[in-house]
Design a protein that fits this description.
The chain is mostly helical. The protein has three domains: 3-99, Arc Repressor Mutant, subunit A; 104-150, Arc Repressor Mutant, subunit A (Orthogonal Bundle), CATH 1.10.10; 151-196. The chain is 63% helix and 10% strand. The protein has helices spanning 28-33, 44-69, 74-82, 87-99, 105-120, 124-133, 138-147, 152-163, 171-183, 188-195, and strands at residues 3-8, 13-18, 21-27. It has a three-stranded antiparallel sheet.
């Protein structure tokens, strides 16, 4: 297959024409790194390798964009990249970001757990559930949960004061508050202590 033209496109992409017809768009840096030029002959294997390298390069750019926007767990990053690229590429890129230290599940879990405790006043049980949803390993969840410092009664009181200020005067609001607190993972004895 003869490369008959390469045209620069937007967002660091180039259109590659093979045998006079448009074949595909590839990452310009991939083309430069592999010294692909007009007049060059490519085999099917070489072309597939270029496509793979281009996809990985673009997936890395997306990963870098995502992690500069906010922290992600490795699983979360993989899932977001998978929306655009293949599963294999997504896993490879997320693993690369982890090896480079740009994605750290333990640090992410610690920050996220503290945020859920301080801002939403969730119980450690609910926090562990949320961390599991983000793909954090049980080992890290256990470690982070042991590091959390909190007083269940004061956390529950904070929720009651903010969200249900009239719970003491209205039985319906009190039942609603108890149901909400249980959904947040707090146990009945702590809820009862905070309400008395």
């Amino acid at each position: 297959m003869l490369v008959t033209a390469i045209e620069q496109r937007r967002k660091s992409m180039s259109a590659v024409y093979i045998d006079g017809e448009f074949a595909m768009q590839l990452d310009t840096m991939t083309l430069l790194a592999n010294k692909v030029r007009v007049g060059m002959t490519l085999t099917d294997e070489q072309l597939q390798e270029l496509v793979k390298q281009s996809e990985v390069s673009r997936a890395k750019e997306k990963a870098l964009y995502l992690i500069t926007y906010r922290d992600h767990s490795q699983k979360e990053l993989t899932e977001k990249i998978r929306r655009t690229y293949s599963s294999e590429t997504a896993e490879e890129v997320a693993e690369t970001m982890q090896k480079l230290g740009l994605v750290n599940d333990e640090e992410y879990a610690r920050k996220y757990a503290n945020e859920l405790l301080r801002k939403k006043h969730m119980s450690p049980r609910a926090i562990a559930y949320k961390l599991r949803e983000k793909g954090i390993s049980q080992e890290i969840i256990t470690l982070v949960s042991e590091e959390l410092t909190y007083d269940p009664v004061s956390e529950i009181t904070e929720i009651l004061d903010r969200k249900y200020p009239d719970y003491a005067h209205d039985e319906k609001i009190k039942r609603r508050a108890v149901a909400y607190l249980q959904r947040m993972g707090w146990n009945w004895s702590d809820i009862k202590s905070a309400m008395t």
